[in-house]
Structures are given as C-alpha cells and as structure tokens.
Amino acid sequence: MITTLKLFLIVIHTFICSIFAMIFALTDRSHTLYFKLSKYFSGGVLWLSGIKLEITGLENLDKKKTYVFVSNHSSQYDIVVLQKTIPNRMAMIFKKELAKIPFFGWQLAMGPYVMIDRENYEKALKSIDEAKVKMQKHNISIVVFAEGTRSKTGEIQPFKRGAFRLATQVGYPIIPTTIIGSNKIMPKGTFKIRRGTIKVHFDKPIGSGSNVTRQQEIDLMNRVREIIVQNHK
Questions:
Q1: Cα separation of 189 and 214, whole Å?
Q2: Which residues contact 81 (CB under 8 A, 6 or more apart)?
Q3: N or C: which end of the chain has fewer CB within 10 A?
Q4: Sign (positive or negative) of CA dihedral 125, 158, 231, 186
Q5: Rounded distance between C-alpha atoms, residue 206 and residue 178, angstroms
Q6: What is the pLDDT of residues 176-193, one digit of tens each?
Q7: For 115-151, what is each residue's pLDDT tens digit?
Q8: Domain carrying residue 156
Q9: Helix (H, G, I), strand (E, B) or coil at 115
Q10: How far apart are the C-alpha atoms of 69 and 141, rounded to whole Å?
Q11: CATH code assigned at 110
C-alpha cells in the first residue's frame, strides 16, 4: 500500500497540474502544452504510486496518424496509464459528471477531451460530432472504454454498442488496447493503491471504414473485444 503522505502528494500534484492545464487550455489552442502536461501529470502519479509499466506493440502505431484506441477498463489508473503510454496526441471520452469536480474536472471540460452525456442519446450523438471535429482539426486520437464502466473483477465485460459506436462513426482506424494488472493496483470501489506493474499492449490497426451497417458495427465490436480478451489471458 502507498503511504498517506504519498496520497497527499498525488492530490497536490493533481491540483497543481489541473491549474496549469486550465491555463494552457485557455492560452494554447493547438493543445500542444496541454498534451505535454498530461505526460508529466501521468508520469508523476505513476511514480508517486510506485507503479511500473511494461509496454508492447508500439511498433504497430504511427505517431503522426490519428486512431481510436479501444481499451478495457478496470481501474482509475487506466486513464493515467494510457495518457503516459500512448505516443499520439490523445484525448479521452469522459462522463459529464466528472466535469463537476473542482479543478480536475474543470480542466477536463476546458481541454481537448470530449464530454459525453450517457443518459441523453441526442447529446451523446453530438459528442461524436465533436470528437470528429477535434480529431480532424487537431490530429487528436480518441480513447474509448467500450465496456462503458470499470470491471470489478478485471475480467473483460461485454462491450456496449453505445460506448463502441464512436469508434466506428469517426472513420479512423481502431487500435485494440489491452491493459493488464491495473485492477490489482486499484480495484473498482476502493481507494487503496498497491504498488506493482501494469502491462499495456497495442494491437495492429483495424480499419473501420465509414457508413458501417449495424451488423458490421456489431461484428467489429466483437472482433475487437475478442482480441483484447485473448491478450488479457
């Protein structure tokens, strides 16, 4: 377990980085400083938490291209892990409730990330359009947690079509992304943080095309999930 002092330092680190993130979001419309800060923030959290990373599959990525990273999700640490390991300019899809968190949530809403209302279908569709614009205008890759919520056991849950839909609608290649071990670091429903190693694997891009049919979307969703399940074993 990490000490109370380190937990305090993580909170302070998050607060300071959130302040700078809001400043960068207001002053740098290219988001270059924001993305650099996200690497510094995530690296600091992982270092303070005593977490090491093992990364494979980086040879499957082109840093200059735009992708949709579809990942499994079982811990709050998945976010900082992907911020640190994805070499492309990257933004998360985050639920609107997080925007209410002072400083940290505010900078999410102000930055290049995409807020989604999971309870309002029409607003969720607008979020997809917003993601498209950001991806095209700023060469930003998007991360999607297709399970919709964190897994309590670490096992891969069924993908939700609503969560996966963005991956097919924006028309960019999909990168199946597998996170292994984060549920042991900080399981869902607890604030206890254990030291350890988290593994991340990036698979080869899968073309999603455009104007996919409902069945094609389902088939692609199942294919991506199966890749992640096999990597997770």
A1: 34
A2: 42, 46, 53, 179, 182, 198, 200
A3: C
A4: positive
A5: 15
A6: 999 999 988 876 666 678
A7: 877 676 677 677 777 778 888 888 899 998 888 666 6
A8: 4-232
A9: strand
A10: 7
A11: 3.40.1130.10
